[in-house]
Structures are given as C-alpha cells and as structure tokens.
Amino acid sequence: MANNVSHTTEYRVLARVVLILMFLTFLTIFVTSLHLGAFSVTVALLIAGVKGFFILTYFMHLKYESLLLRILVAMIFVLYAVIVLITFIDYAYR
Amino acid sequence: MADNKKIEYVSYLDHKGKYTGIRSWIFTMDHKRIGLIYMYAIMTLFAVGALMGLLMRIELIAPGETIMKPQTYNGMFTVHGIIMIFMVVIPGLSVVFGNFFLPILIGAKDVAFPKLNRFSWWVYITGCFLAIASQFMQHGPPDTGWTFYAPYSTTTGTNVIMATFAAFVLGFSSILTGLNFIVTIHQMRAPGMKFFNMPLFSWAIYATAWTQLLATPIVGITLLMLIAERLFGIGFFNPDLGGDPVLFQHLFWIYSHPAVYIMILPALGVITEIIPTFCQKKIYGYKAIALSSLAIAGVGFLVWGHHMFTSGMSDQARWFFSFLTFLVAIPSAIKVFNWLATMYKGSIDLKPPFLYALSFIFLFTIGGTTGLILGSVATDVQVHDTAFVVAHFHYIIFGGMGFAFFAAIHYWLPKMYGRMYNMKRATIAWGINFVGFNLLYFPQFILGIEGMPRRYFDYLPQFQPLQVVSTIGGFILIGGLIFMVINLVQGVKHGEIAPENPWHGTTLEWQIPSPPPLENFDEAPVINPNPYDYK
Amino acid sequence: MSEREIHIEVHRDDEASKLGMWLFIFTELLLFGGLFLVYTVFRAEYPKNFHEGSLELSVTIGAINTIALLFSSMTIAMALSAIQKNNRVLAMRLIAVTLLMALVFLFNKYLEWSMKFEHGLYPGSKLMPHLGRGDLMFFSLYFFMTGLHALHIIVGMVLLTICFFKIKKGTLNFQNYIHLENGALYWHLVDLIWIFLFPLLYLIT
Known about the structure:
- The complex is a heterotrimer.
- By secondary structure, chain A is mainly α.
- Chain A has three helices and no strands.
- In chain A, helix 1 (11-33) packs antiparallel against helix 2 (38-59).
- The longest helix of chain A has 25 residues, at 67-91.
- By secondary structure, chain C is an all-alpha fold.
- Chain C has a domain at 60-132 and 144-193: Up-down Bundle (Four Helix Bundle (Hemerythrin (Met), subunit A)).
- Chain C is elongated and about 60 Å long.
- Chains A and C meet through helix 1, helix 2 and helix 3 of A and helix 2, helix 4 and helix 7 of C.
C-alpha cells in the first residue's frame, strides 16, 4: 500500500514550460507557412514530438515518476511507431 | 486428508455481505464470485455457440440445402464466430480463472480495483445482450462473418452496426480487465514474492493483460470507423470514394492477431501449472517459460498480415509477415519442450486434469504446425479461405484453449467449490471429447487441401464422405461435452468434500481451505521463493 | 455491516490508482493512434488533396485553440501543486480557469464546424461524396478526429468538475489528491493529442 506524497512541481517551472510550448507552437506555424514541402511535415512532427516530451515530462510528472513508468511510456510510442512502419511496408510497395 | 468442517472459517460461498440472493452475485466485488459469474455466462454462451456449430454441421452433412437457406447459413457462421470469439474465448480463461486465482496465486486478498472488476462484468453482460439483440432486430442477423470485412460489411443490409457496437462494448470490458490485472500484479504481490517468484500462470495472465490493454483499442476505433462508414459514408474503406478495403483488414488484424494470443496465453499458463503438479516435479526452465509468454505477446503484435496474404498486399509485406510468423512460433515451441522436460522422470499421475493437459499438447502441436503451413506464403495461397484454415484455428482455439479450459476446471473445481467430481466419469468424458474432436476437425484439413472453401453453404459431391465423418464427430463431441458438464455439476452439488490439497500442488491456492475464505488468506501467506518446490 | 466494507475503506493505494490511470492513457493513445494511422495512409496517397483540404481550415482558430489547451494544461498542473500545498481556494480557481479554457476550445470548435456545415460539408451530406477523393478522406478524418477529441474534452471537463466539488467538500485535499492527479493526467492526454492533431490537420502543406 503506497500513499507516498507525489512530487510538487513549482508554479514557476510550469509557467516556464508553457512559455516554451507556446514558442514552439508559433515556431511550427512559422516553419509550415514557408511551404517547404516534405521538410515542413518532418519539422512540424518533430516539434510536436518535442512539445509532447515537455508535456509528458513536466505536466504529467514523468520526470519525477518511477523508471518503470518512463520505460512503459516509451515502449508504447515505440510499439505504435513499429505498427505504423510495418503497415507502410505494404503501402509503400504497392 | 484434512477435514475442512473442523476448521472454523466462512467460505466465500457462504459469506453474508450487504446483499442477499442473486444480488449478492450481481453486485459482488469478490474476485472469486466474479470469476464464477463470468464462468456461468461463458458456459451458457458456449452452449449457444456450440449449438450454432452443430446446426452448421448438420447443414453440411449433404450438398445443397439440408436444413437451412443460404442466408441463414451466413448468419449462423457469423454469430457462431462472434459468440465464440468475443464472448467465450477472448474473455475465456482470463476472466474465469484469472479472476478467481490470480490474487490467490500472488498472495493477495483481491484484485487492485474490485469495483472496476464488477463494472467489467456488467459491461461484458451488456455487450452480450447487444450481440444477441443484433440477431433479432429488423434487418436480420449480420451475415459478414465475425471478421466484418469491408466493403461487404459497409454495404450489407443486415444488423452490422448493432453487432459491431456489441463487439466494441465487449472490447471495453476486456481492456478494463487487462488494466486491473496489470496493476494487481505490480502492486499487490505478497511481501517476499518478487516477479520471478510468481507462479507461471500469473506470468501468463500478465502477458495476456498487456495484450488486452494495448491491442483492443485498435479494434475499438476500427469498429467505430465501420459504424461511421455505414452511417455517414466517410469513405475510408470504400474504393469508389477513394478508400481502401485492405486498410480495414490491416486495422482489424492488428488487434485480432494479438487477440488469439489473449486466447492462448492463459491456456499455456494453466497447462504450465498442471504439469508440475501431476508430475510432482519442478517445472523445467521457469525463466524461459515466463519470458516466452512476454515474447509471444510482443512478437504477436507484428505478424497480423499473415491473415492477408491473398488480399493484395505488397510482396515485401508478405515476406515480412511470413518471416515474423515463423519467429513467433519459437517461444511457443520452447514451452512445449519445457513441459516435456518436466514430465521426464516425473512421478506421473493420469488424473483428468493431466489427461486434458496431455491432449492439449497433442492438439496444440497439430494446430501450431498447421499454422506454419498457413504462415508460409506459397502454401497459404493454396489453403487460404478453405476448410484447412477452419481446422487449424479450431485445433488451436478449441483443442488448445478449450481443452485447457476443461483442464483448468477439472484442476481447480475442488478448490472453487470444495467438492470432488467423479474422476472415472471425467476420464470417460475426456476420452469421448478427444475422439469426437479429432473426428470433427481432422477431416477438415484434408477437405481444405482438396479445395473445400470455408463459409460455403454448398459443396461438390466429392467432399461429402469426409463432411459426414466430420458431422458425426461433432455429435460425438457434443455428447462428450454434455456428459463432462453433467459430471462436473453433479460433483459441485453432491460430490465428496474436497481436501485443501487434493493434487499435492505447491502453489498458494493449495495452502488455503477449499473453498477459500472471503479474503483468501486469514494470515499472511508464507512465500516460498520457488513456487514449484516439490520434495 | 460486514467486515468486507471496513476493509475496503481502509485499503487505499494511490500508486496503484495512478498506474491504472497511466494504463488507461495508453489505451487512449492507441485509440487515436488508429486514426492517425488512417491519416498517414491517406495523406501518403493524396498529398495534394490533403494540402488543399487543410487550407480550408482556419489556422487562426486552430492556433487559439492550441494556446487555450496548452494554457489549460498549465493551470491544471498548477491546481495539483496548489492542493498539494493545501491551498484549496487557489486549486479550485485554477480548475475553474482550466474549465473556462476548455469551453473556449469547444466554442471555437462549434464555430469551425458550423462554418463547414453551412457549406454542406458534414459527414453524410450530399456534397461529401462528390468531393475529390482525397478531399473526402481529409474531411472525413477532420470530423472524425476532432469530433472524437472534442468528446474526450467533454469527458475531461466532467472529471475535473467532479474534482472541483470534491475539493469544495474536502474529500479531495492535501492528504488525498490522487483523483485530481489522475484527472489532470487525463487532461494532459487530451492536450497531447491536440498537439499532434493541430499540425497534421491545419498546418501541413
């Protein structure tokens, strides 16, 4: 039975994170408005990935959670990526 | 033999809680009672599904129309599949024996979330009612097969929406059960029981629970897409609107292949418990078996395309899926070798649970090796959508998981109800089941290779002799099953009082009274780091 | 009263509860994952149509919604910190701001969808099947994904409202806040999904 106290994140940390997230949002809009074709897609998704990382790490407290949980979250994303990749073994070669 | 009557305790069956009568079952939060009410539902639905199967066998005893019209036949194999897959074998061993025994095996009082467990059962029952409703609503029972392939499923006039929604609801129940079991295993093991001190059935349930949790959402969203296609014409699977029917197959099998591991992993776990007990010998290769369960679950996510070799997928995809399908056979084979190694020089006792376990190995091996024929593209192309496939999956699911279920009930019934059944009759029933099963399904391998298609109402006259043999086998099997059930029910009602440990097992369930008290352990259990410590 | 009920009251495992919530989040990620997979397949097949389709969406409204949701993620995380510091009033206010941001999001969604409906663009409309093939895929995905996402926003709002009243009643407090922690996790999930929806639907050119 574990009712240990969860880590309390300070308000200023959360505020800083949201500013980073908003900056990254505007960055994405800017980069995609440049119409760089496939490069835009990659950059947009990469930035989204970074934003997701911040949300998971700070807002969802993964930074302060157990290693087990962090590994599980990573594995879910890996599993999903693998499933998409395998599906494209079909679509890319049809 | 310990006499339970002398020990002062109240069994979970006699416990008087907040509710009485039937409400004490429908509103129970006791994992043991929940296991039982799942079992009663599953047995009922199995009987309905088996009846459908028997009717199909009667239809197929002769070419042409025998007892039903073609549309009825299409509806029958569809509902047979929906009931058996979504309501019997996927929940199957997990919800019955996982619920009843997982907490006990790890030294816990209950699962992590008892209220959620009860809710899972309510959701399951709701799904069952919705599926049954789809049979009787105005547009007629679905006729798509349980696989609901587009574009037929998106255009046929029958009650597809109700049936797919029922499957969605049932999937939700499965997800919640998986979630509950994962947290139970992580958080509720008794002090001193590390992961590698757990009995192997717990490992099997663990691997199954992860698969339930992660695979089911994919079919959930796919079924929603199917419903949206029927209601709004969204076009994802409609080639006329720019969609791709094969995409449905990808999405469907991304879940439905891991689903077969949901079916078989707990079965493999039960066999792994029964064999050491009836050989009175420690299981050979504990770690290999534990990790092979995880390996099967993991690799099982990557092989789904072997159901689609003739669908029009790219060659590269077919090569990839075939290769991975051969890989996933390896951890299963590891288990079989370890079981055999356990039996070697063991003190073998041919009681009914062990007979079912032995026949499981035989039937599962046939099912598994015929799976390799299906996993190899060149041979699959010949037998895809024939009776060969039907035989393969019945050997694996029925001969495998089904016989494992019978093994489990013969193994654990004394613990669950505190009564013994007649072992001689159980053995005879087993024999009838074994003979009936093989007569029913083996001819279908041959029929399939000869060209008999599956889901076909009619056939060429040359196939009739083997079809007759198969139908006769079906009747024999049904007879054996009825005999088996009657014997078990009589055991529960009038059988001899069962001792605490009738089979001389070493895992925790055999250290508590039969039937167990409400919270399983009246004192904290003493954990032996070796769960299979046979002297 | 049976012994059983006393035991249930005493048995409390916050760690188990949190793990349970994370597992549920995994299922939600995979649920939306299926839709993202369909998006990826059709985007690869109809790149031009998807580009044209996304031009029909208002980047401004999408950006406002993104900002609203990001901000709401911050406020709910702050609400959790507040209750951990035993600052009940601040926690309730922050939850209220979170809910307000959610309403802003839903209102914008309503505006966007209305604009589309007025042009005859909605699932099941007569116009939809006559669009170019890739266009139909894009808009079907648009409605399905944003619709399912909006449904999850509503569920999240319900969860957070319940937390609000629990704090008011005192059953959710600095010694027992797992429900807010879990509700916040669910809210962050809803934000996380939007982080990917926004560029894929509105910005990809």
